[in-house]
Each structure stands twice: as structure tokens, then as C-alpha cells.
Amino acid sequence: MPAGVATLQGAELRYGFVNEAMQAVLGPAVREGDAVAEHPGAIPTDLLEVMRQVYDADRPFVAKAYCLPLPTTADEKPAPRYFDIALEPVHEGDGPVSGLLLFAVDVTVQEEARQRAHHLSIETRRLDTRLRVLTETVPQITFTVDADSRFEYVSPQWYYFTGQPPTADLNAIWPLLIHPDDRLRVLYQSDTARASGVGWSYEYRLRRHDGQYRWMLSRALPELHAPDQAVFWHGALTEVHDQRELADALRRGEAELRFLADSIPELIWTATAEGFIDYYNHYTGEYSGLTKEELGPTGWINLLEPSEQAGAARRWVQSIATGLPYEGLFRMRRHDGRYRWHIIRARQLTDERGPRWFGTCTDVDDQYRLREVLQTQYDELARTNRDLDTFVYTASHDLKQPVLNLRGLFDELRRSASFDDPEEGEIVGMLDEALLQLDITLQDLAATVQEQRGLSAPVEALDLRSVADEVLLGLRAQVQEAEATVSLDFEAAPTLTYGRANLRSILHNLFSNALKFADPARPLHLTVRSSLTDAGQPVLTVQDNGMGMELPGRPAPVFQPFARQHPHIAGAGVGMYLVQRIVASRGGHLQVSSTVGEGTTFTIHWFES
Fold this sequence. Notes:
Elements (H helix, E strand, L loop, with lengths): L3 E6 L4 E5 L1 H7 L18 H13 L3 E7 L14 E10 L5 E10 L1 H30 L3 E6 L4 E4 L2 H6 L7 H8 L2 H17 L3 E8 L5 E13 L3 E11 L1 H23 L3 E5 L5 E4 L1 H7 L3 H4 L3 H4 L3 H17 L3 E8 L5 E13 L2 E10 L1 H52 L7 H30 L5 E5 H11 L1 H6 L3 E5 L5 E5 H17 L8 E8 L5 E7 L30 H11 L3 E7 L3 E7 L4
Parallel strand pairs: 17-19
Antiparallel strand pairs: 1-2, 1-5, 3-4, 4-5, 6-7, 6-10, 8-9, 9-10, 11-12, 11-15, 13-14, 14-15, 16-18, 19-20, 20-22, 21-22
Helix pairs in contact: 12-13, 13-17, 14-16, 16-17
């Protein structure tokens, strides 16, 4: 028998019959007639105690898968063996218990298999619990359907999203929650995938608990059983509504930008990070007469005048390598073969998609040629103006000598000749005045040309008091003759960054005018004061108590060339015109206020605030 069999006799439980299978379990040391207690290693203590209780109680006992180590040598580790143990009391006739019958069936293989199955079951439950926790914590709706399209499982997120109660029939309610425009397509695609035993991936709109339809991405893969037969499909629903709307907005934005670019009558293009052009607007094709394929990835360079292509290409490569903006003026061929001037600009944009280039080619041929014409005219005008200045300066210089000659002849005539005329004195006075006026006019013309040439004098930091004292020193004789009092106050703004020659000319004209137009009825008092505006800009005020003048409107007539307020006083009327020109050329402006019989105030704002 494959089972171990042994008889245990008497209350001492002595071994009687022991077959070979049982002998292998108990070990070779066990012999007939030995008591069980004499070999404690053969029978475990707990089993020995049970044997005695079975003997005393006269009741059979069966132990399933009892671990009973086989006897080994001293060097070997005992290997657990599992046996089904049966203890059966033995009677002699109708007498009391005389012993026990011991059966031991080796079930080690079955027990190990059972234990492995048990451990696998525990691990499966653990993994299933983990998977359920994962599926119920992720934001997606997870589900399982069988081959008949019946739902085996759906995560709680489905109920949260749809607002349906847990008692709802998924198979009946799910199709009704799909948008009517998507329902037929979804049902067909899912049925086709199940019939083919493959997965699916598609988008559709699913009604949310608030009644709003939201775009969802449905993906599922089949669970294959032998022989490659799909039994279940496991999948997930992911809400992609915001991403889809953003993608739609981006597509609309790109379409609008493309429409705008195609509507602009200008060559617009984009290029990759490597500098290869991947987009031309519609006008580029119209202008060049070429298709996008004919233009190619370097189209705008091929359209340039041949002698400019190499230089333009080198600069473009440098911009690609450094990321610096590209800009240049080149001649570009039109569809009729004519080359026209263009400004080509390109800038690099870097975002999450990487660097890209955006460029334009702007036709400036008309402006370029107009600028050439204007530059030519400007050069001619500048040359004419220089010639005119030279002529006026030369003429005024050359006419001084004849005037001096006339004055000398007239003085000699007056000394050596006499006229028998009662108006002799008046006529002589008129001639003197005419000669003096002609001399002053020639001097003013020369000064006008000289000041015009000095408008571009270099600027420097000037001490206002020093320059004013220098000008007053040159006018000392006039100051003394007019018995004038001059007050200088430059505390608020003691310095001025200006051209020295320009500043001297301005102060000279203002001071000399004040002396020239002093009121004979009272001594002249001249006040010169500097200050700063609220914006920190310097201002100069020159105030006198002279005769004053009438200012009927703007611009003030005093600033017009050859304009004179007091004709009875000698002058050419160009001094204040020069002052106004100098101040305006430096970015400032001149204001005047005056009252006849009281005086005049000139206010110079050196720079526009």
C-alpha cells in the first residue's frame, strides 16, 4: 500500500505491524515492540498526545495535511511533509480498546499546490484591491465591458460625472447620455472593435450632471483568452473638453492669422529654427509669380538681385546662429522681372514649441526713389543756400568800401563846397542818415550770414554770469551813454549747456536792443534773471523799462526779418529774427510781452519741456 500503516498495541502504544511506507516515515530506528514514547523524534509530541486521547476516548480521529518531518541525517535540514493522518481504535472482539491503527497518506504535493493557490489568491485579492483603489482615485472614468457590450465594472467617477444613481442600469442609460449627433457613430465603432477583437480610441460628447455635454476620449484594450479570443475590454474615459476647445481656438486663431497674412499686400513668411522657410502668404506668390513649391525653403533669397544674394544669405545664417534680428535693404525681383527695393526683416519667436522665425519683405521702392529725389533736391538747395550766403556776405563786404568812399567824398564835398540853399542843413542831415542806415544794413546782413553759419556751434557748459559780463563789457559805451542800470540774477540756474557763440549773440542782441530802445524820459533799468521750470528746464528772462511796443498778434512782428517797431531809430530789423532762429534751432522757443511806455520782457525757454 502507498499509505503508511502501523498498529499500536496496548496502553503503552507499542509498535506492532509497520509497513514499508510507515517505516520510511518513522525512520529505521523504530522497531516492533518499541513504545511510541521511546522515540520522541519519530512522532511529534502533539500527535502523541492526540494518540493517547483517542485511545482513552475510544473515538477515531482524522487530521488533514498534518506536517510531519521525515527523518534526515545530521547534515540535512528536515523537509516538511504533509500527511492525512487517521487514528482508529482497535478492539479484541467485544472487549475494550487494545490498541490503535495508524494510517498516514502523503499529500505533500497536494498541500503545496493548495498553499500556492492560497498565496496566489491572497496576492490576487491584494492586487485587485490596489487596482480598484487606483482606478477609483484617478480622474478618469474606468470601465470593463464584455464581448456582448455589457458593463462588468465602472468606477465611481462615472456616477459623479453623470449624476446617475448607483442603482441605474448602465447598459440602458449609458447610450442615452451620449450626444445624439455622436451616438450612432460611437455605437458602431465600439461594436466593430468588439467584433474584430481589437481596442478603440475615439472622442464623443457625454452629458454631465448639469446637462452640459462635454467632450470625452474613450480608449479600451481587449483582454485576450486562448486561443486569442477577446473576452473583456478594459478602458477609460478622459475629459478632453478644455483641450479640444483650446485646440479649436488655436485652429481658428491660426486660420484668422493666415487669412490676415494673406490679405496684407506684403510678402510675409515663416521659417524653422534652421532657417528654412515653411510658409509664404498668398501675396508672395502673386508678387513673385511663383508657387510655394517653386519658391522653396530659401525663396526670398533667390528673388534678390544676384549681386546681393551672397551677402544677404551670409547675414541670414548669422542671424540663425545667434538669434539676433535680421534686417536689410535689398532689391527683389517682381513677377515682371523688375527689381524693386525691399526692406527685409525677420524676428525669432521662442515658445514651448521651440524657436521659429517670422519675416516680412516690405516694398519701399517708391519711397526709396522719392528719397533719392528729395536728397538730390536737398543737396541742391543746400548748395544754393551756401552760395546765397556767400553772395550776401561777399556783397555786404564788397559794398562797405563804396559806402566808405561815398562818406569820404561827401565829407570832402561838405568841407570844400558850399550851397546857397536854405535847406542845405536838412539835406546834409538826410544824406548823413542815409549813409549811416546803409552802413548798418550791410553790417546786419553780414552778421545774419555769420550767425546762420554758427547755428551748429558745439555745445558746452557755460557760466551765464561770465558770458553776460563779457557781452556787457563790449556794450560798456552804450550802457554809460544811456546811464543804464543792469541787474544780473543767475542764482536759480547759474549754468547752461549751449553753444558759446550762440549764447553771446543772443545776449548781445537782447542787451543792445534794450539800450537802443530806452525811454529818453527815464534812466534804463535792465533786469536779467535765470530760473527753472517745474520740469527742471532752464529759462532766461530779460526785462527792461524802455519804450515798449505794440504786439497785435502772433507770431510777434518783432521776430520777422526787417520788421521795425520804431522806424525813427536806426536799425535793419534783423536782430530779434536772428535770436529767434538761434533759439529755435537748439530746440527752444522765445516769448515776448510788451506795453507801450512801460517796457518789454523777453522770455527764452532754452529747450522744449
